[in-house]
Amino acid sequence: MIVIILSHTPVWVWGLLAALMALGFSQTRQRRLAHWRLLMLPLVPIFSLRYAVNVGVAFNPGWRSAPWLLLPLAPLYGSLDGLFLGRSLALLKLTRAPAAGRGRPLSI
């Protein structure tokens, strides 16, 4: 059974598996991130959510003025923006050099 599944798996899936395994292995090493990359990380989920909503609106133009969609989205956007911005600033603060022996630097 497993042999049949493996033999019918497309070739591109094996390349994707290799790339994901290489990415996962690279995450096991300790490394340093530039501050701009650290601040860019929270933008990915925010962009993904807004992209998904905009695609939905493009396919269903009636959603543009639908209160059942707009009322929950406004607080969701605001809370996610605040959450990810706060997390990003907290991580940025942790990466700063400790002053006079207080704390320790964060390695990511």
Write up this protein.
With 108 residues, the chain is an all-alpha fold. The chain has one domain. It is built from five helices and no strands. It has helices at residues 2-7, 11-26, 35-40, 43-59, 67-95. The protein is flat, with a radius of gyration of 21 Å. The chain starts with a helix and ends in a 13-residue tail after the last helix. The model has no long low-confidence stretch (mean pLDDT 83).
Task: List key phrases describing it.
single chain, mainly alpha, flat
Could you provide a short overview of the structure?
This protein is mainly α and 108 residues long. It has helices at 2-7, 11-26, 35-40, 43-59, 67-95.
Give the secondary structure arrangement, pairings included.
Blueprint (H helix, E strand, L loop, with lengths): L1 H6 L3 H16 L8 H6 L2 H17 L7 H29 L13
Number of domains: 1
3D shape: flat
What is the chain-wise order of helices and strands? HHHHH
Query: Largest sheet, if any?
Result: none
Average pLDDT figure: 83
Strand content: under 5%
**Rg value:** 21 Å
Class computed from helices, strands and strand pairing: mainly alpha
Low-confidence stretches: none
Note the gap between the termini: 42 Å
